[in-house]
Structures are given as C-alpha cells and as structure tokens.
Design brief:
CATH superfamily of one domain: NAD(P)-binding Rossmann-like Domain
Radius of gyration: 20 Å
Order of helices and strands: EHEHEEHEEHEEHEEEHEEHEHHEHH
Largest sheet: 7 strands, parallel
Shape: globular
Distance between the termini: 46 Å
CATH class of one domain: Alpha Beta
Low-confidence stretches: none
Strand content: 15-25%
C-alpha cells in the first residue's frame, strides 16, 4: 500500500489534537507533526501514538523547510484566533506565518495544502449556505479578514498550478478539551455565573460539528483525487438554534437557563463599546461584536458538496457531541 506522507501543523491544539489522533490510525497515512518544543507534555502524547514529531516553529521557516521535500500533503490546523482587536498579533502570528508556509510548500513540491478555514468567511445571516456564496468581510474582526486573505491566496496558487489547495470551512467545533477555545465551555461558564443572556431570543440557527467527524472530513479531503481547488462546508447537517443549544447545556449541568434576552442591535452596540474599552484598558471583555454576530445571527451550512464529492457522512449529532464534551467539564 502506497502511503501518503502528511505533515500536520497545530497538532497540540483543539482541532489539531483530534486530527493527529484520527490520522495516526489510518493505514494509508504516514503522519508527522510540526510542533514547538513544549513543557506541557503534549508532544510526548503524540509520540505515544506512534507519530513522528518534528520540532520547529512556523515563525521560523528554517526550522521546517528541509522536511517539506518529502511531504505529499500539508494540513494546516495551527492558528492564532481572537474575536476582537489584536490585528497586529493576528498578522504576525497567523497570516504572515501561513503565507510563508504556503509559499514554502509550493517551492518544495508539496502536492496538496489543506487549510482549516472558518465558516465566518462568508459572513452571517445565512441559512443552508453553500460554497458558491461570496466572501463577506467584517471590518471589526481581524481574524475573519485574515481567513479571507488566506483563502484568496490559496486560490491564486491553485490557479497558477503550483500546488493543489483545499479549504475546509466548519461549523462550530464540539469536542472534549479546548479550554477557553470551546464554545460549550464558554456557555457553561456563563450559565454557572448567571451572566449569559440570549441574543435575539436565541433564534439564530447555527451549525455544529463533532471534532471526530471533522477529523474524518480532513482525511477524506487528503486522500481524494478530486478535492484539489475545492472548498467544503462540514457540520453535523442539522439545523440548531442557539436557544436549543443553551437550554440543552443548562439542563445537562443543572443550571437555570438565561432569564433575559437582549436584541441583536443592542448586543452589537454594547460589544463595540466594550472593544473600545479594551483598546484603552487591555482587559479582557465579556462581549464583543463578533460574539454578538455568532450568537445573534444565523450561520447554517449546506454539507451537500462534501457528502457528494468526499463521501462525508457525519456520525455524531450535535446533542451527542455536546453531551460528550460536557462529561469533561462537569464537576
């Protein structure tokens, strides 16, 4: 059996950890992970899975350039993501290293570059959104703007024929771990502190995806001969409202559901004011405009293309994925 050589970035992160575990079990994959030297032991956990760990840093191309010549596919799951402000950090720690990595892959003969993008690249207020929709920049969210710039960059490389590129946009990732990066953890904390309101009555329709299903989607994109040049949306395939999600989490944890709701326009206004406050105080804030959009405006995907072209078939419902996640945070 001819094995595909895959280099994974971000393997010690939320999505990347699931990708590493999933891909390491595939007999047709030879997996190696690029990680920074660590003190928390996450690199050692990768080694215990039989994964080759390569120490390097995306901020220093010299640390990984040589290994690219023998790689068939790079899956880029490393990220630096914030919900507000931090534009300069986003540029230095996410956009510039990603742009350099893409260029190095193209120059060293990597066959395919798979990017873990974000569904927000097409904006909000969308139902059953497919991959043909245009991108829509939100000027107040630097990370979303960088996602769009990276997608556009990948498309230019694809058009030049120097490397095949694949963009996978996901619903909200659901799975154990993730800490502050987990939406379920954030909702649970807000419910515990009785500080979480509904926005717009919780009527926004959202897309969730189990990290186990997401990992399989990346694998399918890697081994597919037809995925080059494509964008795929992945989720559980269900239509879920934010109220359903929050009520479910509250019930499972024994917390009271939110007692109040604020209109979207008010949440957006308050979020903008808190961002201004952060600009001067540098203290973390509990609401921003991005949070208002994510909780108060719909973003629901059609997964028809991934199902048809990749054979993607989600195995976990949103309730199963959320409940599994809650087992890791219950006290």
């Amino acid at each position: 059996m001819d094995k595909k050589s895959i280099l994974l970035t971000g393997a010690t992160g939320y999505l990347g950890g699931y990708l590493a575990g999933h891909l390491s079990k595939k007999p047709d994959i030879n997996l190696q992970c690029l990680v920074r030297p660590r003190k928390d032991g996450k690199d050692e956990l990768l080694k215990k899975l039989g994964i080759r760990v390569i120490y390097g840093n995306l901020l220093n191309p010299e640390s990984y350039r040589e290994i690219l010549s023998g790689v068939d596919i790079v899956i880029h799951a490393a990220t630096f993501a914030t919900l507000y402000n931090h534009a300069e950090e986003e540029r230095k720690l996410f956009f510039e290293p990603t742009r350099t990595l893409i260029r190095q892959c193209a120059e060293h003969g990597v066959g395919k570059f798979i990017f873990a993008g974000g569904g927000a690249a097409i904006g909000f207020g969308l139902h059953n959104a497919d991959e043909s929709l245009p991108r829509k920049r939100l000027n107040f969210w630097p990370h979303q703007n960088n996602l769009i710039k990276i997608e556009e960059l990948l498309e230019s490389y694809q058009q030049e024929g120097t490397i095949e590129t694949v963009i996978i946009r996901s619903g909200i990732y659901i799975g154990k771990g993730g800490g502050d990066h987990s939406m379920v953890t954030s909702v649970a904390e807000g419910l515990r502190n009785k500080q979480l309101p509904f926005i717009g009555g919780g009527k926004a329709v959202v897309s969730f995806v189990s990290l186990y299903d997401a990992a399989e989607a990346f694998y399918l994109a890697a081994v597919s001969e037809k995925s080059g040049g494509q964008i795929y949306h992945i989720s559980s395939g269900e239509q879920i409202t934010m109220k359903e999600v929050i009520d479910f989490i509250a019930d499972k944890l024994g917390y009271d559901p939110p007692a109040r709701s604020i209109p979207f326009f008010m949440a957006k206004l308050l979020g903008g004011l808190m961002e201004i406050l952060h600009h001067f105080t540098k203290k973390e804030i509990s609401l921003c405009r991005t949070m208002a959009y994510m909780s108060g405006k719909s973003l629901h995907f059609s997964i028809d293309k991934a199902v048809k072209e990749l054979g993607y078939s989600p195995k976990y419902s949103w309730r199963e994925a959320v409940e599994d996640t809650l087992h890791g945070i219950k006290t």
